[in-house]
Amino acid sequence: MTNTAPAPADSPSAAPAVNSNPFNLRVIEEFRANAGRVGGQFAGVRLLLLTTLGARSGLPRTTPLVHLEDGADRLVVFASNGGSPTAPAWFHNLMAAPEATVEVGAERRSVRARLVDEAEHDALWARQIAADPAFADFRERARRAGRTTPLVALERVAPAPEAGGAV
Asked: Which residue has the higher pLDDT, 68 or 21?
């Protein structure tokens, strides 16, 4: 069964995003109802909502993710899948269609995803582990499973200039 959460009022799409995980659906609903604040185990955690297009279905898929801020226009997410031997579905969706939408707090922005260069991995991992030590375990479990966790930069897409406006 597929569940849905209402899209934000200012969403360009009237259709709610889709998430098949009931736990994630509750987090999405709480996030949207409280301008990005979520309680319980996520109290104080930097969460964003990532909406991608399903690689096979073409439907919008929304996933709550922990993120690392890396400048004003770049957010980094870790495709750790909790240290699983396989990458999460949202990662496959982004690789198939890198244009996506993120919600951070009450802000909604268009982003383009790209894999983080290998040279940046260790420094970004160190920052994330310092912010959330559980990520050390996720990284190690993925390594034991023979997988290097991809890091994805979500870079803000500048809005197109309005017709007749300055470039």
From this structure: 68
